[in-house]
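Quick one:
INPUT:
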């Protein structure tokens, strides 16, 4: 009987210690824990991201080290009303979040291969730097020096979320 209890305890401890890996082989998951909070679990480390806006959608880059989220702001600035707020957050460090106000709706985001820019899908294509949040004027073309090819990787669970579908 004592041997049975020991083997059951060993089995349960192995099972419980490996549970976070069961849902995703790369041990990466995202949970929207409230209207304004996202919890990212990567390599058994939880990172809570608190946003100043609701979460209408998000996109994670292929390296799983950056997230772009967007939604309606908690408070509207009456002097400069934004329709949608976009947040760029690092998933691996305590870098300060970058927030950008848009006067139009955001429908999605696509990271570029250069790992420094992303296209924000509004009624026009808007390109932003994911390093500092600067919005690039006009369309990105071959003369801009930016590799505007969309980032390509195997799809993974929690890569993107859209609250509203087209």
């Amino acid at each position: 009987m004592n041997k049975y209890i020991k083997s059951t305890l060993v089995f349960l401890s192995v099972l419980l210690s490996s549970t976070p890996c069961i849902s995703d082989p790369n041990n990466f998951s995202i949970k929207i824990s409230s209207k304004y909070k996202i919890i990212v679990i990567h390599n058994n480390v939880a990172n809570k991201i608190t946003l100043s806006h609701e979460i209408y959608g998000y996109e994670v880059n292929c390296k799983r080290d950056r997230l772009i989220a967007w939604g309606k702001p908690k408070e509207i600035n009456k002097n400069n009303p934004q329709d949608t707020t976009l947040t760029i957050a690092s998933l691996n460090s305590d870098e300060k979040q970058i927030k950008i106000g848009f006067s139009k709706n955001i429908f999605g985001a696509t990271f570029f291969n250069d790992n420094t820019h992303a296209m924000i899908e509004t009624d026009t294509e808007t390109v932003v730097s994911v390093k500092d949040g600067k919005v690039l004027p006009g369309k990105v073309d071959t003369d801009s020096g930016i590799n505007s090819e969309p980032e390509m990787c195997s799809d993974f669970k929690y890569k993107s979320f859209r609250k509203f579908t087209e």
